[in-house]
Design goal:
Layout (H helix, E strand, L loop, with lengths): L2 H12 L3 E5 L4 E2 L5 E2 L18 H11 L3 E5 L7 E6 L7 H12 L1 H6 L1 E4 L5 E6 L20
Antiparallel strand pairs: 1-4, 2-3, 5-7, 6-7
Length: 147
């Protein structure tokens, strides 16, 4: 694994995020099944309650021969939540969403942490600091009337 990559991973760990190694490419798993990029190598549920250490993550990433990680959102990561915008299902929806947020909530928009994903979508990251985190919710989907 490239040293610079792991230094960035350690920064995420130091921010209090729970991370797991994921596939950085499509591959055939030990059971002969085809696994897509971004899928975990093993169960992630336990990492909703405990964070892996930097040495443990480095070892797991080296064993899996990956430089990719996923963040486990929720309480374990300091209340981190993410809104996943998959523009591939509705081209242009990202621009509509961002323009709407910027118009209705300009101060909020300036504070958002927005990341482009490998599949040309976006993740909007934010933290819930004083409320309950309800878990995953599907807000809309392909063909949804609210799009």
């Amino acid at each position: 694994m490239e040293k610079a990559v792991f230094q960035e991973v350690v920064k995420l760990l130091n921010e209090g995020l729970s991370l797991i190694p994921v596939r950085d490419k499509q591959e055939v798993a030990y059971d002969g099944k085809l696994k897509q990029a971004k899928t975990p190598y093993y169960g992630w549920k336990k990492y909703q309650a405990e964070r892996i250490t930097a040495p443990g993550l480095e070892k797991a990433m080296a064993k899996a021969q990956t430089e990719a990680v996923a963040i486990i959102c929720g309480k374990i990561s300091g209340g981190l939540e993410a809104i996943d915008i998959d523009s591939k299902f509705k081209p242009g929806i990202d621009a509509v969403i961002f323009a709407t947020i910027q118009k209705l909530f300009p101060r909020l928009y300036e504070a958002l942490r927005i990341h482009k994903t490998p599949s040309n979508g976006y993740h909007i990251l934010y933290r819930v600091v004083d409320g309950e985190i309800p878990g995953n919710k599907k807000l809309a989907g392909y063909g949804s009337a609210c799009l």
